[in-house]
Amino acid sequence: MLGGYRIEGRRAADIAASVERAVGHGALEPGQSLPPMRELAAELGVNPNTVAAAYRVLRERGVVETAGRRGTRVRPAPATTGRDHIRVDVPEGVRDVSSGNPDPALLPPLARAFAAAAADGDHEPVLYGDTAVDPELERVARGELDAAGVPRGPLAVLSGSLDGVERVLTAHLKPGDTVAVEDPGWGRTLDLVPALGLRTAPVAVDDEGPLPDDVRRALEDGARALIVTDRAQNPTGAALSAPRARALRAVLRGHPETLLIEDDHGHGIVDLPPHPLAGVTRHWAFVRSVAKAYGPDLRLAVLTGDAVTVDRVRGRQRLGPGWVSLLVQRAVVRLWAEGTPAERGVAAEYGRRREALIDALAERGVAAHGRSGMNVWVPVPDETGAVARLLHAGWAVAPGARFRLSAPPGIRITVSTLRDDETGRLADAVAAALGPTPARGYV
After folding, report:
1. What predicted TM-score, i.e. pTM, was given to this entire model?
2. pLDDT by residue (tens digit) across 86-112?
3. For residue 304, which of 283, 330, 318 has the smallest C-alpha distance?
């Protein structure tokens, strides 16, 4: 059952650690069954309750899952391994269009903003017990959220979008609860949910966002939370349209106890307006990151939501890191004052590069998706073969397996640094790698 690997340990923690090490090192593979609890207890000479406790710990950590009569198995994408291993190593001389990073040339210079923020800090140092949110950052962020139609709520500042998603999930859910997630969707989210001991319910996505019937089905089947990317959905570039947002609000009104989390990480790099869903359910959160528009290393996102949710997030934050550096917050305010991404033409430039590739692919008979943001999603019949053939042709793309649960295969191409003279050559390579295939959707 376990090949040559032998589970060890006398305590539940030791047994769980033995299994987790084996999964992390590849000795136990995704989908592989663990021994029945009584059988393993007899082999180790321990009480079956000890093994049961170890298996419970592994489930809560997202390493294994219980599949009814089929017993306990290693998860298809265990949290121990994550999805970052599903990547392409880029050899020298190969053009990398797989990273998902913004174009450094479209990021603002940071030195002046940080120097000004540091000067403020020298004049009035931040001490323990000071406010966790810079008042000017709160004022500007609140004004932008109001303009986007996000309901009024208290505000927190966190270390990026994923930090916000994690804190909201842990504020309301317990291990074993189910979260409806976009499929295909952001790989880190698909890893985070099981890492918290939660289950995933995949929801199909098209160019306008999650499909309402899939969301309804997931909520009726018991999903307690829904995570939606408002714009620049990773990897497909989907963006909520006004009609789709109305349809999803109608679904959520029928499930008012659903925890709704909206991720607007594309704010500042997207040329489409947001259509927030927030306010329909009792508990909700809306998070915006500055990573794509101002720089990933800033590690800053603003989060608003209902009073209970934000209070729980703030309370847990106080017991951990305490706050996001006021130096960083004040520098971000300076960056906002020096020029918005729209004023710098960032969204327009990403849109131009994205649409140029989609048009070039269409001319060659290849269907691709990318309504917003900096990525293009190309459905493919053979994901592994397409990635390998493109790598041989000099292009490194991201395997769709990093972003999928049950969605059909595809590849993600990041256009953020794609030059005009490269677009046609890349489209030629993709068309050659796929061969003569009919246009395909991704749901």
Report:
1. 0.84
2. 566 778 889 999 999 999 999 999 999
3. 283
